[in-house]
Amino acid sequence: MDLPVVEPSPPAVAGCSAGSCGSTVRQMDDLSDAIRARVQDHPCYSEDAHHYFARMHVAVAPACNIQCHYCNRKYDCANESRPGVVSELLTPDQAVRKTLAVAATIPQMSVLGIAGPGDPLANPRRTFETFRQLAQKAADIKLCVSTNGLVLPEYVEELTRYHIDHVTITINCVDPAVGARIYPWIFWKNRRVFGHEAAAILIAQQQKGLEMLIARGILVKVNSVLIPGVNDAHLPEVSKIVKAKGAFLHNVMPLIAEAGHGTFYGVMGQRSPQPAELKALQDACAGDMNMMRHCRQCRADAVGLLGEDRGAEFTLDKIEAMEIDHEAAKVVRAELRAQIAAELAAKRARTQAPAAATTPQVIRMQPHVAKSAHPVGRSVLMAVAAKNGLVAVHFGHAREFLVYEASADGARLVGHRKAASYCAGDESCGDAEAVLAATIRALADCEVVLCSRIGFEPWGQLEAAGIHPNGDYAMQPIEEAVMAVWNGMLVAGKLAIGRIAAKCA
Amino acid sequence: MALEIIESCINCWACEPLCPQQAIQAATPHFLIDADRCTECSGDFAAPQCASICPIEGAIINELGEALNPPGSLTGIPPARWAAAQAEIAAR
């Protein structure tokens, strides 16, 4: 393997690593205005954008040219939500109709991605025909693609032809010895290649493709699947190398492996990582790289905001029945985008103003804390039942929680946890106990849960588990609410450094 | 001399563009190989292309009914382990 070492460019703010410093706004400040403008309405590339903008994937690409041990190509399920799973395969024409229908119904829709269920570039005719039509018919929708990278070098030119400026490459390793434990085979130059040889070819192609994209100014996000005992110790090196080559964002996702999924890892008993393991690895990589913390590992036919899936509203038969004024829809989208851009700019101005007046290192959400020259107080993990950037969801209705780390440096999104909403109505509440228990387990490392409202029963159980429920900030912006709670804990003397709470043990 | 695609095919399209004889037809419930056209890639490639990219063990067979990709050959899951896992799931 020949991996040329490229000197990483110096950080924009000296003395401030992404790992120790600040919130989303802070991280985005390290980017050039040009890059910020390119990602500000892409929910998968910008943490801010994911509160406001929606994306969709169209499942036009069923074929794959490699096998990964976390993937089962037979899988097709309406109830599962994870990569590689779809309900119906679309032709390019159907995919274009569906995209236009979604964009007309959900004006927040800003991005169309092709992510499988196979590899988009292993289906070049279908993938590029979809892009070609959409580039003509909905020029305001960003097009992006997610690939395993095996044949990426030969399609880089064609990607630029359709103005695709966001590409995701899944890179799980840069060492063939590690790769041989992840990829059993690839299809390469008209034959099936196995093991170490296969992994070496795949890795070389991924790295070459990454370099070619960067050379053409295309933004590259790298996805990695964290597989305990296989590539966990190796991923910080992956992060360093892809950053040095110019990748913009690194998304380390947890392996999803259950025997019922029929994957190699699932059947062979490979365990998935715990949330705390994932966070520790993301933190370890963050010193070198901009880490994505808000990925929901969506399906290859997902529709809507991250964390929600409205795919069932847009099945082929339902689309056929829709009457759509595409021109009017474009106008609505443009107006909404302008409005959201103004909101984000106002939010940036609010959070930057006090910080600029003091030191550039810290975002001070609460002026009375900002006055302290040496901010003290340990960091605290808080789970938030959120929607559109606000503390806006009833605890019992939350399907997921965003996890923020609050400290003197501000509020920083560090992950999310899935939860089955336990209060689904009258009939299905039989499982409430079990679901509540599972949710509490998923939030075990959090000290506070912020939600718009919460019932008496879960309140008591959360408290018993050492998680303090808080419904005082309903409809407030997340980061402000998180910092207000943290400041309250600081004033109450609960955050003395050295006095580690039982939860952190 | 011809290969055959059987019902475990998942209709993933991977094989169709590779066939040098255009012998593969997209069909439901599964793709089909035109036995009159299939040459098993003899003269074109060292190995039959459809069976070299097919991700499903057992989905492509030869005239003797033998799987070109037998159980365990692609996933790496030993057949006994697979059977045990399926039995365990069924018993839940």
What portion of residues of chain B is helical?
10-25%
The whole-number mean of residue pLDDT values of chain A reads: 83
Secondary-structure class of chain A: alpha/beta
Rg of chain A, please?
A: 23 Å
Strands in their spatial order, largest beta sheet of chain B: 1-4
What structural category characterises the helix and strand content of chain B? alpha+beta
Distance separating the two termini of chain B: 45 Å
Report strand % of chain A.
15-25%
* Number of DSSP-assigned strands of chain A: 17
Gross CATH architecture of chain B: 2-Layer Sandwich
Number of separate structural domains of chain B: 1
What's the assembly state of these chains?
A: heterodimer
Q: What is the CATH third-level topology name of the largest domain in chain A? A: TIM Barrel
Largest sheet of chain A: 7 strands, mixed
H/I helix tally of chain A: 16
CATH fourth-tier homologous superfamily of the largest domain in chain A: Aldolase class I
Order of helices and strands of chain B: EEEHEH
The biggest sheet of chain B, with number of strands, parallel, antiparallel or mixed sense and barrel status, is: 2 strands, antiparallel
Biggest β-sheet: strands ordered side by side in the sheet of chain A: 9-8-5-4-3-1-10
Query: Tally of extended strands of chain B?
Result: 4
Computed Rg of chain B: 15 Å
Describe the protein.
The complex is a heterodimer of chains A (505) and B (92). Chain A is an alpha/beta fold. Helices cover 35% and strands 16% of the residues of chain A. Chain A is globular, with a radius of gyration of 23 Å. Mean pLDDT of chain A is 83; it is low at 4-29, 355-374 and 424-429. Chain B is α+β, with helices and mostly antiparallel strands. In chain B, the strands form 2 sheets. Chain B has a two-stranded antiparallel sheet. A two-stranded antiparallel ribbon of chain B has the order 2-3. In chain B, a hairpin with a 6-residue loop joins strand 2 and strand 3 (32-33). Chains A and B meet through helix 9 of A and helix 1 and helix 2 of B.
